[in-house]
């Protein structure tokens, strides 16, 4: 059964890592629904958040292929209930839309959005929320003439208790102590 | 007058520094990594490196192949027979792209190799400069890791990393692309081997719990079977495999690339797996109750129809690459470890056992296969020479102790089936990719890696013509490789499929061939062609006794098919012995 998964990848800053990751997904015919790259809480470690819809079997397989990449530190696969996530959207409307009473204001307030900027020509509204909420707001604003709409990919925080730095520490220890042969083969 | 560089070097020396160019540093790095043999082809962007090669001639032998693909295959074969990292050089643009088939081949067969490509001057990258190609982008899906170096000071660290990545964990090819300006800049050379990469840990603590539960299953098994692959050789675990098999009395079947990991004359040898493997090994896979898969990846050519594969067996999988578990076949016990260590521990925890009745079933299958397939193929009384009899004779004449290389197609399957390997790392073939044209350059690499053993490469008339320019390399360095062309005047393996699955419609598979002996002679390589059975043994004997390079063309039966065969879509147990 197909389902939405959020893949969180922690990686080193190596040029080409995005390419390697998209290759893994395209080889398995998995569409990327959203892709976000950012810093992580650990200095020098990057966090990629990828949303895909696929089967649990396939997501496990691609996650293992990703984790195998030399510059990938750790990969986590989450279903929606295991994460807290948001997306952010910006909407540009003509300022004259504000002329029709305070309807825009009401829409903005009731959608927990906010007005970011007002100029003589246009206004910009910002909304943080789920994709559904963001699209719903777009629907409501549509009659007033949306000039531009842009939405970010997903940013996600996991509910799991164990954090990246403890994984990193474990990995470091494993890497240094475990099983390393005295002599690395020629 | 001293050049600016030299003056700089002298001042630096006085300060305890070792100033040199990036190209020089690259070669020093290779020497530090134990590299003494490199294959390659020069060109504009890599000229600084080639220039420096002259200064290190006593430490690094460079072999000029006649095509970069040949360099890549030779480097891979060199690695497969020596266990060392194979190295090949190519220039930017077409040089780099010509390597790609060879890199992909090494990737699919997990062979530790380092490819050095040159790149245009860093300021020109991205401008579609002359001979600029994005080899980093192109090689990304077929390398374990790749990296572009634009500053000389980064060369030592990146090369150290490249070797560490290539030869640890699941081994594989690494590509380092070095810009021409980085080759020319001066640096203070310091080298430190890489032993640690934070995001990459190839060493696994022994998976004791899994191994112990595997031991229990093995101790209770009634019809256990070991499936051993190339991973056993890559891990250097042949002795451990033998010890494990002998203690438990479990028969051992090998994959195509696993050949030579277990002696074929051992009483526990169960034969080769897969599409053209042995009857017993395939049929009895589906009767086994416990399968111990070691360093193999359940490739589709091994498993046949997955829905009907090994359904009666509990599967124990020993594998260094975690992504291989459950990829094709669901496993019951995953042992994520190096084969050598895992087998060692496992052997200590299993009981002495024997499965005489079960082994007898293999011998019964062997008898059937011998009567129906092996005998007519290897000891035909009449008709044209068969590929099988050639390989059998070579096997007998070399007592199973030669290094055997093959190309791809029928020649490959027949070489794999009928050579009686007795020593590890004596089989070099293109498994995962099935790259035609592999056999000749790989033969060259293997010969340079094994100066003390006879090396024989079996080629098809088609595959030979894909890389036959490498005869030039054989000539130039007087490489004593023995080339056997099994000439059936067809792209035989494809013709076999046309015969079996396309109503015998031989579309573009017949090959009107040139005079191969004349071609060899043009390269000053001793050569002979034979067509008659009565000449065969003597001709092979003469070839083996020849000191230098030799090419023997043998006209074989045109329309012979390789059997047994698991047809596409069939189960391993449905393997066919004849038409
Ligand atoms: C580079 C490449 N192109 C095409 C193929 C497909 N292919 C596999 S076997 C084969 C026929 C090989 O013919 P030949 O070299 O004469 O060997 P034979 O099977 O006759 O022994 C072909 C075309 C391949 N494996 N590699
Ligand atoms: Mg042929």
Question: What does this molecule look like?
Answer:
Chain A is built from 5 helices and 9 strands. With 186 residues, chain A is of the alpha+beta class. Chain A folds into 2 domains: 3-83, ACT domain (Alpha-Beta Plaits), CATH 3.30.70.260; 85-151, ACT-like. Chain A, domain 2 (Alpha-Beta Plaits, 2-Layer Sandwich), CATH 3.30.70. In chain A, strands 5, 6, 7, 8 and 9 form a 5-stranded antiparallel sheet that branches. A 4-stranded antiparallel sheet of chain A has the order 2-3-1-4. The radius of gyration of chain A is 21 Å and the shape is elongated. Chain B folds into 3 domains: 4-188, Rossmann fold; 208-361, TPP-binding domain (Rossmann fold), CATH 3.40.50.1220; 384-556, 3-Layer(aba) Sandwich (Rossmann fold), CATH 3.40.50.970. Chain B has 23 helices and 20 strands. In chain B, helix 3 (47-53) links the parallel strand 2 and strand 3 (61-64). In chain B, helix 4 runs parallel beside helix 5 (94-108), helix 11 packs parallel to helix 14 and helix 12 (279-285) packs across helix 15 (356-378). The termini of chain B are far apart. The model of chain B has no long low-confidence stretch (mean pLDDT 97).
Radius of gyration of chain A, taken over Cα atoms and rounded to an integer in Å: 21 Å
Q: In percent, how helical is the residue content of chain A? A: 25-40%
Q: Span from first to last CA of chain A?
A: 46 Å
For the record, the count of structural domains of chain B works out to: 3
Give me the CATH superfamily of the largest domain in chain B: Thiamin diphosphate (ThDP)-binding fold, Pyr/PP domains
Determine the strand fraction of chain B and express it as a percent band.
15-25%
As for the CATH topology of the largest domain in chain B, it is Rossmann fold
Taking the alpha carbons of the first and last residues of chain B, their distance comes to 79 Å
- Spatial strand order of the main sheet of chain B: 3-2-4-5-7-6
CATH C-level of the largest domain in chain A: Alpha Beta
Low-confidence stretches of chain A: none
Describe the biggest sheet of chain A? Answer: 5 strands, antiparallel
Compute the number of helices of chain A: 5
Total DSSP E strands of chain B: 20
CATH superfamily label of the largest domain in chain A: ACT domain
| The CATH architecture of the largest domain in chain B | 3-Layer(aba) Sandwich
% residues in beta strands of chain A: 35-45%
CATH top level assignment of the largest domain in chain B: Alpha Beta
Class computed from helices, strands and strand pairing of chain B: alpha/beta
